[in-house]
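Board notes (copied after class):
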Amino acid sequence: GGGGGRTTPIRRATADDVPRLAGLGDITAEEVARYVERGDLCVVAEEDGDLLAATWASTGTQYLVRLCLDFAIPDDAFYVHDTFTISRARRRGLAGRCYERLFDELALGGRMAAYAAVELLNDASRRAHARWGFVPVGRTLTLDVGLLRLTWTPRWPLPTRRLRIRWMGVSARG
């Protein structure tokens, strides 16, 4: 069905959703397993048995593989990551409704501040995050040179190393 975004149920993901979350966007089965293991919260939009959108939130210490960046989330905050809406369900407000549900659930536990990493070249994501109340508070620049990834963090709202170098030929943190 292609019903409107306001009628599509938004709910907390369950263990039954885990296999379907892998492959939604560019998230892998290994990433889903890691998120579930560390206790990340996932909210999904589902219609006629299909997952249309999902977004994740986590607390504690984060390691962003793509940015080679690690930081600790304050006790009153959370980090939003891996938000995705399948192409046929875009422009229906599902990602925003997933964010609202996620924010409401985390606020019950006293977590009132949200952090997210948004790619500068992703106009749709930048506009959506601005609409949801996010403002830029940090900047990370990444340069891949062969199998090396150089990450420079001139400004970041939470304590982290300013420069990281990661060898991309191995899976361990660099």
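Comment from the instructor: Residues 94-107 form the longest helix (14 residues). Residues 170-174 have pLDDT under 50 and may be disordered.
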